[in-house]
Write a structure and sequence with these properties.
Elements: H1 13-23, H2 28-59, H3 65-86, H4 88-110, H5 122-150, H6 156-178, H7 184-193, H8 195-209, H9 218-230
Helix pairs in contact: 1-9, 2-3, 2-4, 4-5, 4-6, 4-9, 5-6, 6-7, 6-8, 6-9, 8-9
């Protein structure tokens, strides 16, 4: 039996949200979307790997011959690392295309009382995904020197990577889900009032996205989990702000 919103209580809300999302992957309707998302994610993964390889071959040249030789030997590993580092950038594209269907399927099973969502135009979703992609790529390239420096401090590079990309990912996922039912101003208020749980959710999504094979289904899994997380958020404080769930019907 699939549990609903009444089962999401306490400090383990986020963990429970991912558990519910994983359980629903067996839903035939969600599985159909999963296969389509999987194909697109795979294409994007290959494209990102090819781009990383091209960048390495094109720009990683030094005057010292032995350095170039070392780079060639380490090129394969470097491409894998760069592809994993940039893979969160592809989340926005996949989510923007499939988010509406994923969220609808999850809500019909777990939150039927909400009724149909107002939804967002497909081009608005795609534009949001493209902006997210550019932001992730640009920010990670800017942060690359810090990542390299952080390699000399155990764990610091990973902390920086997950923190930065988790913040961007949480914002994109939450806004895509919440804008289906709330106005931009309401979404902003709810996001600010719940920045820490949303950030932690984004970090988990990015972490799962750096695990090979599993990262191919992260856009579906992350969207489904964010629908559940949105139901557990606390209302924003302040006069005139809506005291209702970010996913509640209008």
């Amino acid at each position: 039996m699939i549990m609903g919103a009444q089962d999401l209580r306490g400090p383990a809300d986020m963990i429970r949200a991912f558990e519910l999302a994983i359980r629903q992957l067996g839903d035939p309707r969600l599985r159909a979307v999963l296969w389509q998302s999987l194909a697109l994610s795979l294409v994007l993964q290959v494209a990102i790997g090819a781009l990383a390889w091209w960048g390495l071959q094109r720009y990683a040249h030094f005057d010292i011959g032995w350095v170039n030789t070392v780079i060639r030997w380490l090129g394969g590993a470097a491409v894998v690392v760069l592809a994993l580092m940039l893979f969160p950038a592809s989340f926005g594209i996949v989510v923007s295309i499939f988010m509406e269907r994923i969220a609808d399927i999850v809500e019909r099973v777990h939150y039927p009382q909400l009724g149909p969502a107002r939804g967002i135009p497909i081009w608005t979703g795609i534009w949001t995904g493209l902006v997210f992609l550019v932001a992730v790529v640009a920010l990670n390239l800017v942060m690359l020197p810090l990542y390299l420096i952080a390699l000399f401090v155990a764990g610091l590079g990973a902390v920086l990577f997950y923190a930065i990309n988790g913040w961007l990912t949480a914002r994109m996922y939450y806004e895509q889900v919440a804008l289906r039912r709330l106005s931009p101003a309401e979404v902003k208020a709810w996001r600010r009032a719940n920045r820490w749980p949303l950030w932690l959710t984004g970090i988990v999504i990015v972490f799962l996205g750096t695990i090979p094979v599993l990262n191919l289904i992260v856009p579906v899994l992350g969207t489904a989990a964010m629908v559940h997380v949105a139901q557990t958020l606390k209302p924003p404080a302040g006069p005139g702000l809506p005291f209702r769930s970010p996913s509640a019907g209008r």
